[in-house]
TrEMBL record:
Organism listed in the record: Mumia zhuanghuii
Gene3D superfamilies: alpha/beta hydrolase
Domain of life: Bacteria
GO molecular function: acyltransferase activity, transferring groups other than amino-acyl groups
InterPro entries, alphabetized: AB_hydrolase_fold, Esterase-like, Mycobacterial_A85_antigen
Protein name: Esterase family protein
Signal peptide (residue range): none
Length: 248
């Protein structure tokens, strides 16, 4: 694990912590060089450390387990995105641009492959992962995994502060835009007791080919996300290992 911070221009000068977790098997630069990376986007009320905290998701431990079980090795990396739902806002803050324009170059500077990446997120970060995957497209994104993505049908139903206004919501709404994820491996999981279940089901049903994942017993909480983590990481690792296919 390596951690640090940056002053993000895209987030209007905010100090943003970040962490990178490599799987076991080599601690030197040579062993870690050229590994693919999955960028992990946190939920509302969380920060980059939530992905790796032993009291929260502990994704680095799940990464070690799936790699030991035969999944091709890759790294996980997370950064503080605030609570602006990972997209450009009227006040000039843009956590999504921070990921693309500031965090990915930082990861490349640590020897990770950033030409073809994966995204993983939960809740607000699940929306963010799908949004950024759609924005970058299959030329850059191999796979995206979303756990309990924060999706709504209408602006009036959204959480306070998630969007600037109805126009902002319409600009980045994912419903009806599933074709924008064509060529990207997609996995979506949502608990049957989750408030986002109905919207998540409708989003999944809008794909021409049903994404991986499903709707399992569980709520909108870390217990459910930890149960889904091994399957999500295995899915992402397999997709990163597969040859690129942007014609789908």
């Amino acid at each position: 694990m390596l951690s640090g911070s940056i002053t993000s221009a895209a987030r209007r000068g905010k100090q943003c912590g970040w962490s990178i977790a490599w799987p076991p098997g080599g601690s030197g630069p040579a062993e870690r060089a050229e590994l693919p990376v999955v960028v992990v986007l946190h939920g509302r009320g969380n920060d980059h450390a939530s992905a790796f905290s032993r009291r929260y998701l502990a994704l680095d431990r799940f990464l070690a387990s799936v790699v030991a079980g035969g999944t091709a090795p890759f790294a996980l990396a997370s950064i503080d995105g605030g609570e602006t739902y990972w997209h450009a806002r009227d006040d000039g803050e843009d956590a999504g641009a921070m990921v693309v324009d500031e965090f990915l170059p930082l990861l490349a500077g640590h020897g990770l492959r950033t030409d073809r990446i994966g995204f993983l997120g939960w809740s607000m970060g699940g929306f963010g992962a799908l949004h950024l995957a759609r924005t970058l497209g299959p030329e850059r994104v191999a796979a995206v995994g979303a756990m309990s993505p924060a999706l709504w049908h209408h602006f009036k139903d959204t959480a306070p502060g998630a969007y600037d206004d109805a126009e902002d919501f319409a600009d980045v709404d994912l419903m009806g835009r599933q074709d924008d994820l064509a060529g990207i491996a997609v996995r979506i999981d949502c608990g049957r007791g989750d408030p986002f279940l109905a919207a998540s089901r409708d989003f999944v049903h809008g794909f021409e080919a049903r994404p991986a994942g499903g709707f399992q017993r569980g709520d909108h909480d870390r217990g459910y996300w930890r149960r889904m983590a091994p399957a999500q990481l295995t899915f992402l690792g397999s997709a990163l290992e597969a040859p690129a296919n942007v014609s789908a």
